Amino acid sequence: MQILSKSLPKHVAIIMDGNGRWASGRGLPRVEGHREGSNAIKRLLDTSLEIGLKVISLYAFSTENWKRPPSEIHSIYSLLEEFIDKELDDIHRKGVKIIHSGSRDKIPKNSLKKVDLAIEQTQKNKSIIVNFCLNYGSHAEIVHSVNEVLKERSNKEKPLDTKIKEKDIENHLYTYHLPDVDLLIRTGGEKRLSNFLLWQSAYAELYFTDVLWPDFDKDSLHTALDWFKSRVRKFGDVKQK
Ligand code: FPP
Known about the structure:
The protein has helices at 19-24, 30-51, 70-93, 109-122, 138-155, 166-171, 218-229, and strands at 12-15, 55-62, 96-101, 128-136, 183-186, 205-208. It is of the alpha/beta class.
């Protein structure tokens, strides 16, 4: 007999794919797909607050997305700035805490300024953590973490040749203060992880849907969470956890 876990995921990570296809399917420029994608984020936050989710990570821009045409990169960062300008007060009022995972290098100065403002303004909020993954890639994150461990060791009493443990790497990931990912959602029909939270998703349940990100609504999130509830999670043990 299967025992079903009824609990909510502590950490939901989302690969928001399909903005471009949403737009081209309507004969619109790709930027319109990203614009609608940004509306979908707003909708997601409201639904997540309603449901009582506590941590959401959003893959907004990867370390590989710099390969895109400069005009598209520019429009994604402009939309991010617009999102913060328009939504920050409302988000703050609702108790959302904004954080960033990723490298600060290369992110346009103005976007960083707004992201920093959002982080600062919302730092004491407790309802939900929204982790904007910008200029984020798991490989870069793990390399960054190992370098931080080495840097720390070169300054401290621990000899450099002491073996690095899993906990050392975990403690220096961008997400060191967040729980591991329980549920990873990818919209847009592709079935891959695209360098997103690989360490943190080691035991995540992977949910792939054909729904394009701009169409991802309240029902889509509920469907994903219902599916999650039906999963038997054993984390390598023989018993359900
Ligand atoms: C993937 O879809 C989407 C992105 C790389 C960018 C995500 C950006 C947003 C949701 C809007 C930005 C706004 C904020 C607030 C961060 P795709 O372009 O790869 O879609 P496709 O596979 O259909 O081409």
